[in-house]
Design a protein that fits this description.
about 180 residues, alpha+beta, Maf protein, six-stranded antiparallel beta sheet, 5 helices, about 25% strand
Length: about 180
């Protein structure tokens, strides 16, 4: 797993626990810009593979708020850094529609090319709750709990990232070559 975010690496390690060992490679990838997280992940995978030169995965995640026309979308990390959860909730003051979703794209790269897998998790924006997780987790409610109220072991089975990883795992388990 190539990422500079240790939280993501731990979540992915937890997802694959007991199946495969996941090595965290801390590599700062360029910040690619695109409205499609799949294209961002594809570009990051291409760059990372050129540096690491062995099979790897990278990811990119969008956080989309319906009332804000999908903002911040794939710019979620930048917006979180600048506004944080308080700023997002301030933007939502007076809005009735609190629905939002996360979309993660996992890109797998090896010598034969790049394959992208997606996962989406829909929920609702709420006042911050919980101590687990990172980023928008305290304000994103899924089935009655915020992601920050869900232990990482459970979150790693149900999250948007878990859905994308499940698609990757299915592809690998179906006998796709892993070079």
């Amino acid at each position: 797993m190539v990422t500079s975010n240790s939280h993501k690496a731990e979540e992915i390690r937890s997802y694959f626990e007991g199946l495969i060992d996941v090595e965290h490679v801390c590599l700062e990838c360029p910040e690619y810009r695109h409205d499609d997280v799949g294209e961002i992940a594809r570009n990051k995978a291409s760059y990372a593979f050129s540096q690491v030169k062995k099979p790897l995965i990278v990811d990119d995640t969008a956080f989309c708020i319906d009332a804000l026309s999908g903002f911040p979308g794939p710019y979620a990390a930048y917006v979180f850094q600048k506004l944080g959860n308080k700023g997002i909730l301030k933007l939502m003051e007076g809005e009735e529609n609190k629905s939002a979703h996360f979309e993660t794209a996992i890109a797998y790269a090896d010598s034969s090319g790049i394959r992208v897998f997606h996962g989406i998790m829909s929920g609702t924006l709420v006042e911050p709750r919980g101590r687990e997780g990172f980023g928008y987790d305290p304000i994103f409610e899924y089935q009655g709990k915020t992601l920050a109220e869900i232990p990482i072991i459970e979150k790693s089975r149900i999250s948007h990232r878990a859905m994308a990883l499940a698609n990757l795992r299915t592809w690998i388990m179906a006998g796709r070559p892993v070079n």
